[in-house]
């Protein structure tokens, strides 16, 4: 059962992060909940907890965290402290948009929905149709940690008709730390076996992957290995594109001369298509990449089926895959067999690291949620964003899983007899998978990569070192991907309608098709034009001119 839980949760427990950026609150004792406490930094309102609420939560693969809720001490503690009962609503990573569409149409949208629809037609429609409710400013202002999220520069301009209709899931408070969200794990022992150096260009990269697929890199005498894999099609190509044309994230807008166009319509995007096609055609890419379940690529890498994996390089992410590696490779130290491949120069000669918005994905709230339940939800979110909440995510339940005395933290969890490490919190408390990412998707500061007490207790020394060296190298030697965030977040009617197209799906179809990729992509663009792409371009550039981003 635990293996099933791990499979369903590995994608979103990779950011078990404590944020020094958030001043925090603690869960107050029941008789103190209505008092206001001054901790020297923030005044915290414990709120009214007298009424019990059942809160339904739609979250990616959430069901795996609720298989035995009665035996999950952390879940029981959270439900008791906040006087709630959590009802999980299963949403699959592979088809969550369609799942939510059905739930919305049938009037069964959960109280809380994790989604990625801000500034899209779906978002506009849900607001206009009254499917989701607003988050009142008076509630936001009541909870200091939630308020900090809503005041982020990427967030504060996301109001519609003067109101917020979602709470973004803060990811990296420093955009440069997004470098850790686009990384490539590679089998360095396979490279050594085949005499391969670190690729210095795309041709060498393809050659390495082909060698992994064709030249028996594990030296077992069998034809049972492949090159590059990914965990799901939505993240396919993230690291690869960094090394080609980094600004061409599939949903970004890029500047060509004095106007902006969707990256998919930019002239250089054809080169992206051709290079991704080449990976597949030459056998450098996992032949099943388009059908991957959420965890398939990770498991293939740990089992030694593929030699390279598009992944992340935060300490939490690396520790998760290292734990999986240890299950399949007892006695083989992860850091001795695996390394993070450094990016090579893109087409313009520069080295780049990934960047992004200060948030990834959002929480939406059903219009059926009344003010009392809304207040309780924000109270929960505020705690999860606090120092105490983030410490719980990292270390578990105080006095049960750890003791803190001054600057010293003593871990009380049992140790795994096979690995000698403390048993993972996720195995003790499966619900942690949801709590770790419900209010934030990490909220990382550079402190996550420091060699401090909490990080030393949370991660293997070599894993922490690997993550530190990678982020330090990126910050020192690479440039942030050029993005114009004002354009990315711009909402116009045509741009909103155009957002419904699935560019990733169309890219993959072209890659898999035997026809000429340029002709096929031009056909895709003609279809996009019928769906309003040109109107979106005109509206975006008119707004960009008004904002002074481009000449009028």
What would your notes on this structure say?
The protein is α/β, with parallel strands linked by helices. The chain folds into two domains: 2-176 and 357-394 and 428-449, Periplasmic binding protein-like II (D-Maltodextrin-Binding Protein, domain 2, 3-Layer(aba) Sandwich); 183-353 and 454-480, Periplasmic binding protein-like II (D-Maltodextrin-Binding Protein, domain 2). The protein has 24 helices and 18 strands. The strands form six sheets. The protein has a six-stranded mixed sheet with strand order 4-3-5-14-6-17. The longest helix has 17 residues, at 461-477. The radius of gyration is 24 Å and the shape is globular. The chain starts with a helix and ends in a 6-residue tail after the last helix.
Task: Set down the secondary structure blueprint.
Elements: H1 2-9, E1 36-38, E2 43-45, E3 53-60, H2 73-82, E4 84-91, H3 96-105, E5 112-115, H4 121-128, H5 137-142, H6 144-150, E6 167-172, E7 183-187, H7 188-194, H8 202-214, E8 226-229, H9 238-242, E9 253-256, E10 259-262, H10 269-281, H11 296-303, E11 306-311, H12 315-328, H13 334-337, E12 338-340, E13 352-353, E14 359-365, H14 371-385, H15 387-395, E15 402-405, E16 408-411, H16 425-428, H17 432-438, E17 440-444, H18 453-458, H19 461-477, E18 479-480, H20 485-488, H21 493-498, H22 503-512, H23 517-530, H24 533-546
Parallel strand pairs: 3-4, 3-5, 6-17, 8-11, 13-18
Antiparallel strand pairs: 1-2, 5-14, 6-14, 7-11, 7-12, 9-10, 15-16
Helix pairs in contact: 10-22, 11-12, 12-19, 14-15, 22-23
């Amino acid at each position: 059962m635990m293996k099933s839980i791990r499979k369903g949760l590995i994608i979103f427990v990779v950011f078990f992060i404590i944020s020094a950026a958030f001043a925090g609150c603690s869960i107050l004792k029941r008789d103190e909940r209505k008092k206001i406490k001054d901790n020297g930094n923030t005044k915290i309102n414990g709120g009214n907890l007298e009424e019990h609420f059942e809160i339904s939560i739609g979250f990616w693969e959430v069901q795996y965290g609720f298989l035995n809720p009665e035996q999950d001490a952390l879940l029981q503690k959270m439900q008791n402290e906040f006087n709630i009962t959590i009802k999980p609503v299963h949403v699959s990573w592979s088809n969550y948009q369609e799942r939510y569409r059905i739930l919305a149409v049938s009037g069964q949208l959960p109280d809380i929905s994790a989604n990625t629809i801000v500034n899209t037609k779906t978002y506009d429609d849900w607001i206009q149709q009254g499917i989701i409710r607003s988050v009142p400013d008076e509630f936001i202002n009541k909870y200091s940690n939630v308020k900090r999220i809503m005041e982020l520069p990427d967030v504060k301009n996301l109001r519609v008709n003067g109101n917020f209709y979602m709470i973004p899931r803060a990811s990296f408070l420093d955009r440069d730390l997004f470098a850790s969200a686009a990384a490539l794990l590679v089998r360095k022992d396979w490279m050594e076996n085949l005499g391969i150096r670190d690729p210095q260009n795309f041709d060498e990269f393809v050659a390495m992957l082909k060698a992994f697929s064709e030249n028996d890199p594990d030296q077992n005498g069998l034809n049972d290995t492949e090159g590059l894999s990914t965990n799901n099609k939505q993240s396919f190509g993230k690291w690869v594109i960094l090394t080609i044309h980094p600004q061409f994230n599939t949903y970004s807008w890029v500047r060509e001369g004095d106007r902006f166009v969707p990256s998919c319509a930019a002239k250089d995007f054809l080169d992206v298509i051709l290079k991704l096609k080449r990976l597949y055609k030459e056998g450098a890419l996992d032949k099943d990449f388009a059908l991957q379940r959420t965890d398939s690529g990770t498991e293939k890498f740990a089992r030694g089926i593929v030699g390279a994996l598009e992944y992340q390089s935060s300490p939490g992410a690396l520790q998760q895959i290292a734990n999986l590696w240890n299950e399949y490779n007892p006695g083989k130290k992860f850091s001795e067999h695996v390394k993070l491949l450094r990016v090579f120069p893109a087409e313009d000669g520069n080295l780049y690291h990934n960047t992004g918005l200060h948030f990834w994905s959002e929480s939406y709230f059903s219009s059926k949620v009344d003010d009392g339940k809304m207040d309780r939800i924000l109270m929960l979110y505020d705690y999860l964003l606090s120092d105490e909440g983030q410490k719980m995510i990292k270390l578990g339940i105080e006095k049960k899983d750890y003791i803190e005395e001054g600057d010293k933290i003593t871990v009380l969890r049992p140790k795994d007899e096979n690995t000698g490490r403390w048993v993972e919190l996720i195995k003790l408390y499966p619900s942690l998978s949801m709590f770790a990412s419900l209010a934030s998707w990490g909220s990382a500061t550079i402190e996550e990569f420091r060699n401090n007490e909490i990080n030393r207790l949370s991660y293997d020394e070599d894993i922490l070192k690997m993550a530190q060296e990678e982020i330090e190298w990126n910050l020192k030697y690479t440039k942030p991907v050029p993005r114009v965030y004002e354009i990315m977040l711009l909402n116009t009617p045509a741009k909103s309608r155009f957002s419904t197209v699935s560019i990733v799906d169309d890219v993959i179809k072209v890659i898999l098709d035997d026809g000429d990729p340029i002709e096929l992509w031009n056909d895709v663009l003609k279809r996009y034009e019928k769906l309003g792409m040109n109107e979106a371009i005109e509206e975006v550039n008119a707004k960009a001119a008004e904002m002074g981003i481009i000449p009028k």
